[in-house]
Each structure stands twice: as C-alpha cells, then as structure tokens.
Specification:
The mean pLDDT is about 95. Helix 2 links the parallel strand 2 and strand 3. The longest helix is centred in the N-terminal third of the chain and has 14 residues. Helix 1 runs parallel beside helix 2. About 35% of the residues lie in helices and about 20% in strands. The chain starts with a strand and ends with a strand. With about 130 residues, the chain is an alpha/beta fold. Strands 4-3-2-1-5 form a 5-stranded parallel sheet, with helices on both faces. It has a single domain, classed as DsrEFH-like (Hypothetical Protein Ychn, Chain: A). The chain contains 5 helices and 5 strands, in the order E-H-E-H-E-H-H-E-H-E.
Length: about 130
C-alpha cells in the first residue's frame, strides 16, 4: 500500500508531529511504501535546522531528517508556508538575499502541486495536525 502523509503541526506546538513520525515509521516497518511526507502550515517547522531542543526532549526535526535519509523519503515542505515562517533552503536564501538557510538538506521546498500529486498517487492520505 502507498501512503502519503501530511503534517500540519510544528514539533513544539502539539503531539501531532511526533505521532506522524511514529506512524510513518510503523508504516515503513510494516512493509508499506510512503509516497511522500508533505509539511504544511506550521508543519514546516519540522524542517528547521536552527531550532534548539532541550536535552530531555526528542529533536523531531533531526528524527524526521534521519528517517528520510534511512528510507530515502520524499520530505516536502510547502513553499508558501515555509517562506512566511522564515524557512529557507540555500536556494531561497540566495534568491531573497537572506544571510542563511534554515531548512535541513533532507527536506525539499515545493508547491501544493506536490500535495496534489501525492493524493493522486497514494492509496491513502493521512493528515496529522490542524
């Protein structure tokens, strides 16, 4: 089964991001295919390489990045949501003449077309967060 996942909450705002991460791992462990993980709205904060997490908490951004590397996942953050929140990859930082990128390299900035594509290609789409 091909599953697309949408994450709409940031790692610090609710349990949704952690639940999405655990769900994604469980789907992969069960032998299913994760077509794409699309981060929208505050969910784009999951790609933030500049956030510092207390030592006694899981760094969900690093965990998403590690899961993406391990399983060659397509981790996509919404461009409009990202830009409004100061989430820039190296290309966008250059484009908008900003001094630094804030998006982990495992994530790709793209448009809502990627979400539509995921919905069309997946057997199921599961959304986490509000």
């Amino acid at each position: 089964m091909r599953i697309a996942i949408v994450v709409r909450s940031g790692p610090a705002s609710s349990q949704s991001s952690r639940s999405a991460l655990r769900f994604t791992q469980a789907v992969l462990d069960a032998g299913h295919d994760v077509h794409r993980v699309f981060f929208h709205g505050d969910g784009t904060y999951n790609a933030n390489t500049l956030s510092v997490v207390p030592q006694d908490e899981e760094d969900l951004s690093a965990s998403w990045a590690a899961l993406g590397r391990e399983h060659d996942l397509d981790l996509v953050i919404c461009v409009a949501s990202a830009l409004k929140r100061g989430m820039l990859d190296a290309s966008e930082a250059d484009r908008y003449e900003r001094p630094a990128a804030s998006v982990r390299p495992e994530f790709v900035i793209s448009g809502l077309g990627q979400l539509a594509d995921a919905a069309l290609d997946a057997d199921r789409m599961v959304t986490f967060g509000g």
